[in-house]
Structure formats: C-alpha cells, structure tokens
Amino acid sequence: ISMKNWAYLELGLENILEFVVMATRDDLDANAEFIRLADTFIEVPSGKNIFNYANVDLICETAKAQKVDAVWPGWGHASENPELPKKLKALDIAFIGPTSNVMSVLGDKIA
Fold first, then answer.
1. Strand, coil or helix: what is 71?
2. Which of 16, 36, 70, 86 could form a disulfide with 100 if both were Cys (CB 3.0 to 4.6 A apart)?
3. What is the helix (H) or strand (E) element at residue 42, kind and residue range?
4. pLDDT for 89-111, tens place per residue?
5. Mutual orientation of helices 83-90 and 56-66 as an angle, nearest 10°?
6. Which residues, other chains included, contact 97 with Cβ-Cβ below 8 Å and sequence gap of 6+?
7. At 32, which helix (H) or strand (E)?
8. Bridge partners (DSSP) listed for residue 40
9. Average pLDDT, the chain
10. 95 forms bridges with which residues in the sheet?
11. pLDDT of residue 67
12. Cβ 90 vs Cβ 84: under 8 Å
C-alpha cells in the first residue's frame, strides 16, 4: 500500500499529504515507482549512497530547502543513522522513525 493510499484509507483524502522524494539520475532513468508516486522529486547526485540516500547532511539540506514538516527515510541508507533524527530535530523537522537514542541502543547491525 502506498502512503497516498494509506492517507485515503485512514484520513479520507488522498492528497492531504504532499510527498517530496530525493532521486538519483539512475532512479529517474529507471522510472522508479517511488518517483512516480511522489508529488515532487529533487534530483540528487548518483553514485555511492554516501553521496545521496545515506548522506545525512544532504537529506537535511533538502528537507529544509523544501520546507517539509517531516522526513521518512525509508529502509536502509540513512534510516538507521542516529545523526539523521538528531539533525532534523535541530531544524525543527520531525523524523518518522525511532529517536537517535533508540538507534544508538540498537547499534550497528552490520558490525
């Protein structure tokens, strides 16, 4: 179920939420579904995820520039980095996910 479908089912309005996504050129060229489902996309550098989806500073800069109320980072990449919710909080942007303290307690799953 997409977030738009969820919004419609739970809130009765499909367009009550506006979805802004970050997308690399590779994802744009692949016509990725998450981009098609978004209201707006912001192109970010391609390459290793440290240049895009795992780049906490880029995510925060993009969120601030787009004047978003909240960030949901999806799965993987920066979603498990305790710096993301901490930096978003400093910008007064909500993080949809666990707090940085909880992430720190869970630790690195790869280690």
1. strand
2. 86
3. strand 40-44
4. 999 999 999 888 888 887 665 55
5. 30
6. 72, 73, 79, 85
7. none
8. 20
9. 90
10. 71
11. 96
12. no
Terminal C-alpha separation, the chain: 32
The C-alpha atoms of residue 52 and residue 105 are separated, in whole angstroms, by: 25
Tokens of 86: 């901490």
Q: Which tokens belong to 72?
A: 């949901």
For the chain, the three-class secondary structure string (H helix, E strand, C coil) is CCHHHHHHHHHCCCCCCCCEEEEEHHHHHCCCHHHHCCCEEEEECCCCHHHCCCCHHHHHHHHHHHCCCEECCCCCHHHHCCHHHHHHHHCCCEECCCCHHHHHHHCCCCC
Report the distance separating Cα 93 and Cα 60, nearest Å. Answer: 9
pLDDT in tens, 13-31: 878 889 999 999 999 999 9
Contact (CB, 8 A) for 66 and 42: yes
- With tokens 């799953």, the residue in question is 109
Quote the CA–CA distance of 55 and 72 in Å, as a whole number: 14
Rounded Cα distance, 52 and 64, in Å? 16
DSSP code of 100? H
